[in-house]
Design a protein that fits this description.
Layout lengths: L9 H9 L3 H13 L2 H10 L7 E7 L5 H13 L5 E6 L26 E6 L8 H14 L4 E7 L3 H7 L4 E6 L4 H8 L8 E5 L6 H12 L11 E4 L7 H17 L2 H31 L2 H11 L5 H13 L11
Parallel strand pairs: 1-4, 1-5, 2-3, 2-4, 5-6, 6-7
Helix pairs in contact: 1-2, 1-3, 2-3, 2-5, 5-6, 9-10, 11-12
């Protein structure tokens, strides 16, 4: 059988991932995206070898140059012999198997580098959602011995916040002239970033945006870490070294104060709860759909004959056996 059609076993796949074999990595992440049962066994095998890669989340509105910036950062760190993984997350992508979307084609500069592995991921109907698939892909690249893993995501909606929640350092990329970005910062998404890059620094509004963002950050007087703001020009590679220095400074801050381990513990616990919640919700929806009595409860709520909390208690009691054993909170 041709090498590219190799039949992987759980053992050979785990061994291939640990050795950094690109075909094994591609296969493992495909299994993760598809929610294949083998993926769960594989992650279980690989998990003890994880915790060494440093994860950098790159987020921001569409079209601000995130992929160009990642490409420039990859080029910068590869000069230091650092091995890299890149996971580009596109929740809206109907494509599969690492389709390169939009300006992600810029990352193709690194495809022939054996120490760089790049994967674009869409939802593809993954049972536990995109955040779970991204976490598992990150664990695969971590177990493969990558020193750094960049996780790129579009926008700053709830799903993207969950995806980016697994990163050690989060970089928010903005572009001058996009007022929506500044509004998003004011709306509280500012809690996300550790470092801010204002890309396309030659834009006439770059300095104005820098001042606006700085004024928003000044409202937070309590945090020990103040997110630095760096003006960059990703396509020409300008100030990419300065941006990398700020990312490294944040990592040093986390490591010197013992915060990195605490952040990772919090992130992993959050992922466990997020995945469990997603699974429980799906189980509930299926249970209600397939049970006439539970459907009747929903219908009664919709007709305003039964209040929502009573319906919740009855559904939880029946589906998960959660509730008061004496039935005092049910009808």
């Amino acid at each position: 059988m041709a090498a590219n059609r190799r039949e992987w076993t759980r053992e050979s796949l785990a061994e291939g991932v640990r050795s950094g074999d690109k075909r094994a990595l591609a296969r493992a992440i495909s299994l993760v995206e598809d929610g294949d049962a083998l993926a769960y066994e594989l992650i279980r095998d690989l998990y003890p070898q994880t915790g060494r890669a440093y994860a950098i989340g790159i987020t921001g509105p569409p079209g601000v140059g995130k992929s160009s910036l990642i490409s420039a950062l990859v080029r910068h760190v590869r000069e230091r012999e650092t091995s890299v993984g890149v996971i580009s997350v596109d929740p809206s992508s109907p494509f599969s198997h690492g389709a390169l979307l939009g300006d992600r084609i810029r990352l193709s500069d690194h495809f022939l580098d054996p120490e760089v592995f790049i994967r674009s991921m869409g939802t593809r109907g993954h049972l536990g959602g995109l955040a779970e698939a991204t976490l598992q892909a990150l664990l695969v690249l971590d177990a493969a011995g990558k020193d750094l893993v960049f996780v790129e995501t579009v926008g700053a909606g709830q799903g993207e916040v969950e995806v980016i929640g697994i990163a050690d350092t989060v970089v928010l990329v903005l572009m001058p002239g996009s007022g929506d970005s500044v509004q998003a910062l004011k709306a509280g998404i500012m809690e996300i970033p550790d470092v801010i890059a204002i890309n396309k620094m030659d834009h006439p509004a770059a300095k104005t945006m820098l001042n606006e963002v700085r004024s928003i950050l000044s409202l937070d007087r309590e945090s020990a870490w103040r997110p630095p703001i760096v003006l960059t020009e990703a396509v020409r590679g300008e100030n990419v070294d300065a941006l990398w220095d700020k990312i490294e400074a944040h990592r040093a801050h986390l490591e010197s104060d013992g915060l990195l381990e605490a952040r990772r513990r919090k992130n992993l616990a959050g992922e466990v709860f997020a995945v469990a919640s997603g699974r429980a919700k799906m189980h509930l929806e299926r249970a209600v759909e397939g049970d006439p009595e539970l459907r009747r409860l929903l219908d009664e709520v919709q007709r305003r004959e039964l209040d929502p909390l009573t319906a919740v208690q009855e559904i939880l009691l029946k589906v998960f056996k959660l509730g008061d054993p004496d039935g005092s909170h049910t009808r």
